[in-house]
Amino acid sequence: MVSCRVGLVGAGGVAQRHARVLSGFDDVEIVGVTDVVPEAAAALAARHDARTFTDVAQLLAAGPDAVYVCVPPFAHGPAEEAVIDAGVPMFVEKPVAVDLGIAERIADLVARRGVRTAVGHHWRYLSVLDTARELLADRPVRMVSGAWLDKVPPVAWWSRRDRSGGPVVEQAAHVLDLIRVLAGEVTEVTAYGNGTPPPVDGADIDSVTTATLRFARGAVGTLSAACVLGWKHRAGLEILADGLALSLGEDGLLIRDADGERHVPADPEAARVAVDRAFVDAVRGVGDDVRVPYAEAVKTQRLALAVADSARGGRTIRLTTPADSHALDTGVTVDA
Ligand SMILES: NC(=O)c1ccc[n+]([C@@H]2O[C@H](COP(=O)([O-])OP(=O)(O)OC[C@H]3O[C@@H](n4cnc5c(N)ncnc54)[C@H](O)[C@@H]3O)[C@@H](O)[C@H]2O)c1
User: Fold this and answer.
1) What is the pTM of this model?
2) Of ligand 1's atoms, which has the minimum distance to the CA of residue 71?
3) CB–CB of 304/172 below 8 Å?
4) Could you say which DSSP state residue 5 is in?
5) Which of 50, 133, 237, 248 could crosslink 45 through cysteines, CB 3.0-4.6 Å?
6) How far is the CA of 15 from the centre of ligand 1 (A)?
7) In sequence order, what E strands does the chain have?
8) Whose CA is closest to 132, among 263, 269, 321?
9) How many C-beta atoms lie closer than 10 Å to residue 27's C-beta?
10) What values do phi and psi take at 139, rounded to 5?
11) How many CB atoms lie within 10 A of CB 12?
């Protein structure tokens, strides 16, 4: 493959970002864009000298080497099925769906067809994540507190539960994904929502959610998500181990231990580039650094949905783990 010919499904904010990053790679060509809003597809295609297609089938007929699925959470499913059916490598934006049914069905198809996948959990490429892992290598995590405290993003579907999955699934999933990496799997979730939507037309999501988490390796923790602000206040996680406190966000890692305090900066843009670079290298057969293939993203999705479902139903949800591997089992049980 001389260059990797990429097609885009969805032409909104995140597709525009991927298109910008990908067009900066000299071994990538953006060949086509499709969107249910033809004008959106046309505008993005024009920016990258690409063609516009009326639907995914037409885009696939053009023979792309890879397809990016950048649709809102509620729209996942049909595009992935078509791409998998065509045997084309697929990058999917998080969250992979609003529910577990679609996510598990797509994961099953991916496994059966053996299609290469990646999901947009770019926080996994933050340089400071390795630093945090090294610091925690010989110290068990005792406590985790994750948070995504933000505004309501300016997309119409976001404040509708059936469209976005809600703030925990749609936004805090980045934090939950890193929590899984650093503290291991969560076995039990009890969450509360405030029952008050943000002041946005048609909103039906909680504007604040807080969850307590119990981990297989013995840690306990919390996750909070809020969209009551007019700005992004904080997104990240704090981890306490014996004699060590870590505070990790997209822009860096604050380390405090017996030697004092130090800050290691991180470049969020570098992580956003790295997630695309790793996928393209894998598609071209010159690299193997996809950190979140589809099946791995489903595990984070399962945790995010457990938090959202617990908050909604006012119940504790148990997630069963077969030992504390990095694999959450499918089992979810509910305490009424
Ligand atoms: N990884 C990240 O950092 C990151 C950042 C932003 C958004 N996202 C995720 O990307 C997804 C999209 O977010 P966005 O900000 O681009 O939303 P958006 O609303 O700006 O864009 C979505 C686009 O998809 C199109 N679309 C909807 N249904 C479609 C379908 N069935 N087929 C083709 N196109 C369809 C819409 O017309 C729209 O143009 C969300 O799940 C969001 O969480 C991830």
Assistant:
1) 0.95
2) 24
3) yes
4) E
5) 50
6) 7
7) 4-9, 28-34, 51-52, 66-69, 90-92, 117-119, 141-149, 186-193, 208-215, 220-226, 234-241, 244-249, 252-257, 260-265, 316-319, 332-335
8) 263
9) 14
10) -135, 120
11) 17
